[in-house]
Backbone:
């Protein structure tokens, strides 16, 4: 049975992502973050949903074994365009290159989610959203990157802090683009 504390569902998040933690807490869940230490792969031969689910699977395998009596959630978000993944940038110039390639175009953001439930079968799913960026000058991109910390974000940008600077339109779940599709998650983790 789900563990409830003070009326809130308790979830162990197999992640260090402050964005995922904030999304879950904002939705009313009590969250404990446990970093899995699992190595993420960047297998360009896999479709985005399979890659995101594979990385989420690696994270949950490490954490769920230590918390078998808790609900454990793992997620991984990938940015994909024209058959290429845009992972976390290695440095600011890599972030600049990524945002420049995404500027004026539409790309896909896919989050793979796996939930472990104590004593019953778990759930896995992938959610996809389409994100269109405004056309951007090099100066606009550099100014934007100075205003955020791009190195821990797939694609080098932050949807939650965008305020229309990069993103022209999102088709699908906005929270998915931030890192966790709360609309789908609510189907499996009701408050």
Residues:
């Amino acid at each position: 049975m789900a563990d409830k504390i003070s009326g809130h569902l308790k979830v162990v998040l197999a992640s260090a992502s402050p964005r995922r933690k904030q999304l879950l807490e904002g939705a009313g869940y009590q969250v404990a973050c446990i970093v899995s230490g699992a190595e993420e792969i960047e297998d360009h031969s896999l479709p985005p949903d399979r890659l995101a689910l594979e990385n989420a699977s690696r994270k949950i395998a490490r954490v769920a074994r230590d918390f078998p009596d808790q609900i454990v959630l793992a997620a991984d978000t990938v940015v994909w365009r024209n058959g290429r993944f845009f992972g976390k940038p290695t440095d600011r110039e890599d972030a600049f290159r990524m945002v420049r390639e995404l500027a004026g175009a539409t790309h896909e953001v896919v989050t793979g989610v796996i939930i472990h439930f104590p004593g019953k079968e778990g759930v896995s799913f992938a959610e996809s959203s389409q994100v269109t960026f405004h056309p951007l000058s090099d100066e606009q991109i550099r100014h934007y990157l100075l205003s955020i910390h791009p190195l821990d974000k797939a694609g080098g940008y932050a949807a939650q802090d965008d305020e229309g600077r990069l993103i022209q339109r999102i088709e699908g779940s906005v929270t998915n683009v931030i890192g966790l599709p709360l609309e789908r998650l609510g189907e499996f983790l009701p408050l």
